Amino acid sequence: MSTTAERVESAQGEHPIAPYLRMDRIPHIWCPTCGLGTVVKCYATALEETGLDLDKVSIVSGIGCTGRVAGYMKLDAFHSTHGRAIPFATGLKLGRPELNVTVFSGDGDLLGIGGNHFIHAARRNIDLLVVLVNNFIYGMTGGQNAPTTPMTAKSSTMPFGNFERPFNIPHLAASCGATYVARWTCLHVRRLTKAFAEALGRKGFRFIEVIAPCSTLYARLNRLGSGLDLLRFYHDSAEVRHGADTRELDMGFQEKFICGKFVDSERPTFTEAMNEHYSKILGDRYVPMTPEGGWIHE
Amino acid sequence: MKTDPRGVLTGVHYLDGDFACGEGAMAAGCRFVAGYPITPSTEVVERISRRFPFMGGTFIQMEDELASMAAVVGASWSGTKSMTVTSGPGFSLMMENIGLGAMMETPCVVVNVQRGGPSTGLPTMVGQADMMQARWGSHGDYQLIALSPQSPQEAFDLMIEAFNLAEQYRVPVMFMMDECVGHMTEKVVIPQADQIEVVPRTLTTKPPGEYWPYQVNGSHIPDMVRAGDGYRFHTTGLTHDYRGYPVMSADCQDESVRRLVDKIVLNADRIAHFDEEKVEGAEVVVLAYGITARVTRMGIELARREGLKVGFLRLVVVWPFPETKIRELAGRVKGFVVPEVNLGQVVLEVERCAAGRCPVVGVPHAGGGVHDPQIICDAIVRAAR
Q1: Cis-peptide, bond into residue B222, ω within 30° of zero
Q2: Residue A144 dihedral angles phi and psi, to the nearest 5°
Q3: Domains in chain A, start-ordered, CATH in brackets?
Q4: Which of A55, A80, A95 sits opposite B229 (nearest CB)?
Q5: Are residues B67 and A84, on separate chains, in Cβ contact within 8 Å?
Q6: pTM over 0.90
Q7: Whether the Cβ atoms of residue A16 and residue A62 lie closer than 8 Å to each other
């Protein structure tokens, strides 16, 4: 009988996404039936499909279960503070404009403590791919209520059911000016992979919400069964409707919901707008930052 | 290395401390600034946002100070020299990511133009009551460096020192200006770029695959890399080992946190920067920093007129505290006098280092103004008894 670690050892080099992972950090800390492994697999597959220069791809996470994603990706990877992944990534991107920066974090991190940064980065159209894995709950700290917990769903701090209205996240992102907005579940492996690949090739504030099961806390507190039961629920309840009106994307408790790509548009990024504006006003006197970053590298 | 001439406004100017501070940052090679408006610091970023477009710099006005500090830490990892600017309430909000900067060992500069506190306090009036916050404000054990300029000229000169120290020690450096110096207008001489020495980022010479972000050999300060150079490194605010990987153990905590502290403490004498005036043979030594150093000179003059032998020790680098110097003096003088625009902060460090060997007389001021020099003189007379 081999240990888990030994099995992982023997799998190295065999698994198709092993080159994209820090295999020396596997096994990961996520619970069995957590959706995060699948989401990471989809993201890594998308990286492979796009053929991006991985030396120029950075990943930034905040704190929480999804906050651990950066730690497992074999990229320049930053595990920052709770809620601050987006402003950290903003500095990283503006400091070296040629970088392709992905923010990977959870619903509590990006929309609870980090909500203010989310709306402003979308408004400014900072050139970031933001992946929000939504498990409807604060997982790492033990199942507390999140700004995404559906009405009436139970959490450890709403033991009698949630009475706060949750965010309609794609609508929020679209309203603030995100150039790409999609929602998938971790059951939609091919569609999610395609969405990652597509969004990696776009510019601007690109946002993908991924619904993922938390069987350890969300499902247990709400008696929804195992992780597999949640995937079955996604299978039966997710309706794919591309281009849906984002006002119709609220998530009810165990109700049917809409997935798809809702926004795919272009508008100048923060950096493009700055360069264009300063060039117009200042002409030849304007010195933009080089793609490689500030002066010290020259 | 010599600095980038595009950031250097060579010449003789008449500038306030805030503008001079901004010019110092640009002359030091800073090319990324994130900030949020707050009195009395805003003129620093106003100056920078007007000048950056001509030198390849990017300024972004963030949504708050939490975001500003996070962006500065992120930008520093891109390799671009970075800083933020704020005052009391904003400084409080930055503490979380100053801790991240300390933990990730990220070179950057945080300017705090101090005003009266606590809370909203006296937004347009002077204070020096954030000195202990600069030292201890973020949770956990760490050490960082803090400087305090006494004039617009020093606001320029010391910004270059601040950026250089940040790079040398891979640490956030606190630039503890105060409202008086920030809003005081004086002559500022900005030299030619080829006379400004700056410390570049110490990028590793190891190839990818052989490099680990927190591996040290002999020195306490690991070599750095920047995102986008193929190292595929990992860093985290969690307690981490030499690889930058989280390790949740008391042993790893001991090793990593001790190094964060040791890299500053063991180099304290090298980082130390103070001015001495007539300290040799003095009965009483007055210790001051920032605007209070200017006022103190008059207080000392008054005491000297009464026949007292008074020395002056002006702190330029306040943290790490010049313990060696104070310990040495404590055995020789009758007493120390420590005026500051707070109700007793740096004086506590003087008391600690004097360790009961001589009296230490604090001269507190709650803020909103500076000391009456006569009060400082009276304290000197008391200490000399």
Answers
A1: no
A2: -75, 165
A3: 28-297 (3.40.50.970)
A4: A55
A5: yes
A6: yes
A7: no
Helix (H, G, I), strand (E, B) or coil at A140: coil
3-state secondary structure of B114: strand
Distance from the A163 Cα atom to the nearest Cα atom in chain B, whole angstroms: 29
Stretches in chain A below the pLDDT threshold 70: 1-13, 297-298
pLDDT for A13 equals 54
Distance of CA B48 to the CA centre of its chain: 19
B107 CA to centre of own chain: 12
Q: Distance between CA A200 and CA A194 in Å, rounded?
A: 10
CATH second-level architecture of B5-195?
3-Layer(aba) Sandwich (3.40)
CA separation (Å) from A68 to A28, A140, A280?
9, 10, 43
Quickly name the fold that domain B274-384 has. Rossmann fold (3.40.50)
Peptide bond into B53 cis (omega under 30): no
Distance (Å, whole) CA A36 – CA A65: 8
Predicted complex: ipTM over 0.85: yes
The CATH 3.40.50.970 domain(s) of chain B lie at 5-195
CA distance B71 to B286: 40
Is the Cβ pair A289, B31 closer than 8 Å?
yes
Q: Delimit the CATH 3.40.50.920 region(s) of chain B.
A: 274-384
Find chain A residues with C-beta within 8 A of B233's C-beta: 76-77
Partner B contacted by A19 (CB < 8 A): no
Other beta carbons less than 10 A from residue B348's beta carbon: 15
Per residue in A134-172, pLDDT (tens digit) is: 999 999 999 999 999 999 999 999 999 999 999 999 999
Q: From the CB of residue B324, how many other CB atoms can be counted at a distance below 10 Å?
A: 12
- The answer to whether residue A78 neighbours chain B at the CB level (below 8 Å) is yes
